[in-house]
Amino acid sequence: MAGIIRNLEIFGTGTHRASTGPITVTEEDLDQIVEAFDALQGTNIVKPHLKLGHTDTQKFFGQKDGVPSLGWIERVWREGQKLLADITDVPDALLDMIKSRRFHNVSAEVYIDIWFLWF
Fold first, then answer.
1. 53-65: string of b/e by CB count within 10 Å (b at 16+)?
2. Which candidate in 67, 79, 92, 108 could, as Cys together with 51 as Cys, close a disulfide (CB 3.0–4.6 Å)?
């Protein structure tokens, strides 16, 4: 079985650490992320997903390479200075771990053309 995470805060305005150094994110930047997400909906270009960890070399479920998708980002929107998302097809075991606070940090992985979400 799989479940849904609704109204998850995934990103916000302010200064964030990025692989390229500190970046400052504005409400306009968040609006651009929402616009890009909406534009990609229904295409085969990319489907943003939920993953655990920051690198493709991490192994969680015995896979030989990469990180499995643990849910799909179905909706993204901005409320004030926060970016929120609904995530579907999240395995029940992961939902249970989130509810028991085994994962408490959320970090968006944002690229020019692609972005993912991890705990």
1. eeeeeeeeeeeee
2. 67
